[in-house]
Amino acid sequence: MNGKTAAMVDAADIDKAKAHLLAFFAAMAAWEKFAEANFSEESTDEISEKVKALYRQYATEKHHDQDRYSWSGMDGGTYGKHKIVDVEIVSKSRAYIHTNENIFQDRFLMIRQEDGMWRIDSRQRKREKWEKQAL
To answer: For site-directed labelling of 80, which of 14, 25, 29, 108 has its Cα 20 to 30 A away?
Structure first.
């Protein structure tokens, strides 16, 4: 953790940010399972609306109308095996939460506090270098 700004965010707030991210991971896994089990031409609108509702609940407004057209098909979904490995406080209202599934799956998610609630703002994944990705 960054010592200078870490004092600006208390441990309870950091725990809330982590809990929010883990809840998003669980909700996304449930959506992926639903999408895989129910995929058909007739169900695409329902699948789309469900993922948009997730983004409205867990992400900043810039993601609210975002759709997702694929899912992992793995047990636990895209984020099922990801563990939080570090939190980097950027400011009182922003933090990077680093996750890792294995040495090839490093990610960090920018999470920011808006109106007293934590929201996911962006995601990056490291392959050869860090690159932005959709949620």
So the answer is: 14
87 neighbors 14 (Cβ within 8 angstroms): yes
Q: Which of 99, 104, 109 is nearest to 133 (CA)?
A: 109
- Nearest to 1, CA basis, from 109, 128, 97: 97
Using the CB atoms, write b or e for 91-109: b if 16+ within 10 Å.
Answer: eeebbbbbbbbeeeebbbb
Say which range, 11-15, 52-56, 62-66, 119-123, has the weakest mean pLDDT.
62-66
Going by C-alpha positions, the residue among 77, 73, 27, 23 that lies closest to residue 54 is 27
| CB-based contact 35:47 (threshold 8 Å) | yes
Structure tokens given for 75 = 């047990």
Task: Name the residue among 97, 100, 106 with its Cα closest to residue 83.
Answer: 100
